[in-house]
Each structure stands twice: as C-alpha cells, then as structure tokens.
Amino acid sequence: MTSPLQLLSPDQHLGLGLRPASNWAFCKTRDAVPIALSEFADLAGWHPIVFSTGPVPMPLAVLGTQQGQNNFLDMSCQWPAHHEPPTALKLHPFSLGVDAADAQRTVVMVDLADPRLVPLEEDDAAQPLFTFDGKPSPTLSSITQRLGAHAFALKEASALGLALQQSGLLEDMHADIRTPDGTTHRTRTFRSVSGSKFRNLATSELERWFRQGWTDAVALHLSSLRRWVQLYERQQLHVKALASASRAND
Q1: Which of 61, 90, 106, 146 has the most CB atoms around its CB within 10 Å?
Q2: Dihedrals φ, ψ of 114, to 5°?
Q3: For 146-178, what is each residue's pLDDT tens digit?
C-alpha cells in the first residue's frame, strides 16, 4: 500500500488547497504525541506527560489510556473547545522530512489522506498552498515557518530526554487506576523520572539543568502524572456515549 505521506512540491500539488478543519478525526487513534518543553506548562493540567521508550526518550502528552485511542475527542471527533491541542496535532497534515538527495536539507511532507486537502476548484474556502507560478503561498510559508520552529523545539525536548536517560533518572512506568468498583485499569508502559533519584542529582548538574529550564520541565512532568485518573474518566465517558449511541440506533 502506498503511504499517503508525500513530498510537497508545486510539480505535483500546484492546485492543492487547505480548507478549514471540520473535526479532528485524523488523530482519533493517537494515544500520545511528542511535545516541546514550552508546551509542558499548558498541557500538564490536562495530560499526563511521560517519556517514550527507545534510545532517545521524547516527552509525550498522553491522549488516551489505551493504545490507539484518543480520549479527548467527543462522538463527533471534536476537540474540547476550552483546551488547546498539542502543536504537533495543529500542524497536521504537514510535517518535516529529510531531502532524499541532501541529508542536510529539510523538506515539507504532507499527508494526502487528510480530507482538508482538496483541489482548489472543489472548495472556495480552501487556501492555496502554491501561487500560480509555483511559489509557496503565504499559507504554506506560514506553515513551513511553524514546522521549523516546532522541529527545533522538539530537538531541545529530546536533549532533555537524553540527559535524563544518561543520568539514570528514567524508569519504566505504567499507571494502575483503581475504579470505584474496586477493579484496576493498567495503561501501557511509558517512562517517567524517578523523583527520588532526581532529588539526589549532583548540585553542579542540578544548577546546569536549572539554567536550561529542565528542572521546571521535570517538576511539571511529575505533577502531570496525577492526570491519569482524569484521563481514565474521559475514557469511561466515551464508552458510555458509545453505548448510548448504540442503544439509540437499535
């Protein structure tokens, strides 16, 4: 099967436009998304912030208690009106990739499966991605700038993850959520900072981390782990809504 992710180019996509989003269905199977350090403060009030497994742990905002499920979307795939989505989701269907001919050059990739991408003649509300002569439109120029800024911010976030791993501060974790009926729900495995080990970090290292803003990020990460229960409550509300819709259709 051909991947919907393609290099965006005027040769292939001159007449392509981006129309306003009607819903967030594209991310309904996303249960976590990479985030930048600057997003910790806003997202920690709603999402557990954890770290990915692998050689370079990335900070992640958790969207769902189960793999492949986003608990922040309602039955119409709408995001909560009072809550700002993570930047990576706001930038979809665009992302940065590496030029196949020049590994030092980044290129804009686009997910052509996204229904917001349409031929300009099909929707008057769609904003062109290229001008008639193949130059990036103001819309695409703005998107490219935001992609670059976010990619740089994610590199800073990955530097924190790597430092945590090299310092031996990360440990595998999963959340065990006890429900009122006494049953326990276990999430999939992520990684989190060991609070006790972090408090024993050498003073010189702690001072360096403080100057880089990493101590604030770790504190927000640890505080956000209390959000697992709220996330599970969202998941339960979604299950009840699905059951009600099923009964209504019977």
Answers
A1: 61
A2: -70, 130
A3: 999 999 999 999 999 999 999 999 999 887 777
Task: Using DSSP bridges, classify how beta strands 184-186 and 32-34 pair: parallel, antiparallel or unpaired.
Answer: unpaired
Determine the Cα–Cα distance for residues 217 and 125; give it in Å rounded to an integer. Answer: 40
Kindly give the pairing relationship between strand 190-193 and strand 184-186: unpaired
> Which residues does the chain have with pLDDT short of 50?
1-2
Contact 220, 40 (CB under 8 A): yes
For the record, the structure tokens of 89 come out as: 């989701």
List beta partners, residue 65: none
pTM above 0.90, yes or no: no
What is the CA angle 28-53-27, rounded to 5?
10
Full domain range(s) for residue 101: 5-249
The DSSP secondary-structure symbol of 44 reads: T
Instruction: Identify the pLDDT of residue 98.
Output: 81
Structural domains of the chain, count: 1
Q: Write the DSSP string, 45-93.
A: TTS-EEE-SSSS--EEEE--SSTT--TT--TT-PPPTTSPPPHHHHHTT
Cα 46 to Cα 63: distance, rounded to the nearest angstrom: 9
- In 3D space, the residue among 77, 59, 82 whose CA is nearest the CA of residue 221 turns out to be 59
**24, 59, 57, 93: CA torsion to nearest 10:** 30
Return the bridge partners of 111, or none: 5
Backbone angles phi, psi at 170, to 5 degrees: -95, 145
